[in-house]
Amino acid sequence: MALRTARNLAYCLNSIRNYSTNGPLVNVTVNEKSGFATVTLQNPPVNSMNLELLTEISHTLQQLEKNKCRGLILTSASNKVFSAGIDIFELHKPNSDRISQTWSFVQEIWIRLYGSAYPTVAVINGHATAGGCLLTLASEYRIMLNKFTIGLNETQVGLTPPTWLIDAMKNTIGGKQTEFALTAGTLFETEEALKIGLVDEVAQSKHDAIEKAEKFLNKFKRIPPHARSITKAKLRGANIQALVRNKDKEVKGYVDFITDPQFQDTVGKYIELVKQKSSK
Known about the structure:
Elements: H1 2-20, E1 26-30, E2 36-41, H2 51-66, E3 71-76, E4 81-83, H3 88-91, H4 96-114, E5 120-124, E6 127-129, H5 131-138, E7 141-145, E8 149-151, H6 163-173, H7 175-184, E9 188-189, H8 190-196, E10 201-203, H9 206-218, H10 225-245, H11 247-258, H12 261-279
Parallel strand pairs: 2-3, 3-5, 4-6, 5-7, 6-8, 7-10
Antiparallel strand pairs: 1-2, 8-9
Helix pairs in contact: 2-4, 4-5, 4-11, 6-7, 6-10
């Protein structure tokens, strides 16, 4: 058994080395002693989730699952922003096929990360808004640095979060807090997020956060991976299956909503506001 485990780990490490250098938007490194993979988003300046970044994230998660790696730490190359979510420019005057692919990849990423067989930690070393918060909610454990914000602020730009994401937030912080957070599009400061359970720990630096993440992952060192993954699947499976059943319908609804003239007017005004703030 030990020899088989060692062989699987060696295969995983070699496979990751082979593909991780190919994608400029996602970097993968592996701790050869522990077998934990650190996946770093590097789409400056704010890790906006355009189609290209989403494609690389999905491919990375697929390879990690395929090669049976032992744990994931998800973080950002930026020291200010974990991820600002879906690229707002993807939503303005979009190509229907491209926006359809974009949301399909969001769904795939959620399914792979939320339902991964291996344990997962989000090291939130910057602001995590909208889709950035989505990635952290899909993880099992969240460690956040001070003086940043996190939350699903979709309503501020006229969007609504999908049901499966709402359910995940309910499971994390409870129904009452979720209703308040989502209807107001609230962004929580680090200490506020810790207080309501949106994050599990606060770290003083990224190095400190990585150490805490490894400590969390090491809790499962002596737990049989098969038993752990089955238990996780039982806990999260219903939410995943609900998404799987409605994937195509949801994509169509998303495209219809994004291309609606009223939403296009809202997002156009929002972009102009952002440009005005940037120019000052």
